[in-house]
């Protein structure tokens, strides 16, 4: 997943924007020849583009998020990023086995409420 994807993602349940990104694992990738600044939200710096005098777009384009999670401040839901893909599905379409394996792998780095939500089948 690219950091810049957070510039367009909204919660599939409550439509809240922006979402919080927590990176657990990232890797360096080759930068593309053309680099474009995000329009509204810079996830690399965790804030709105208008609030920064300088963004580091070149660095951002050279990073790939391998694992992490996206969290909604509006409704409190979280969505895992697994193998570079954000798994952002409505509740009724979520893969509970994937959520469980994500929590088992990263449990010590996750907030307690996320661990409990998987244990309780939420």
Biggest pleated sheet: 4 strands, antiparallel
Give the total of beta strands.
6
Order of helices and strands: EEEHEEEHH
In percent terms, what proportion of residues is strand?
Answer: 15-25%
Shape: globular
Overview of the structural elements:
It is a single chain. The protein is α+β, with helices and mostly antiparallel strands and 122 residues long. The protein has one domain (3-88): Single Sheet (N-terminal domain of TfIIb). Helix content is 20%, strand content 24%. The chain has three helices and six strands, in the order βββαβββαα. The strands form two sheets. A four-stranded antiparallel β-sheet has the order 1-4-5-6. A hairpin with a 4-residue loop joins strand 2 (41-42) and strand 3. Helix 2 (96-106) packs antiparallel against helix 3. It holds the Pfam family Trm112p.
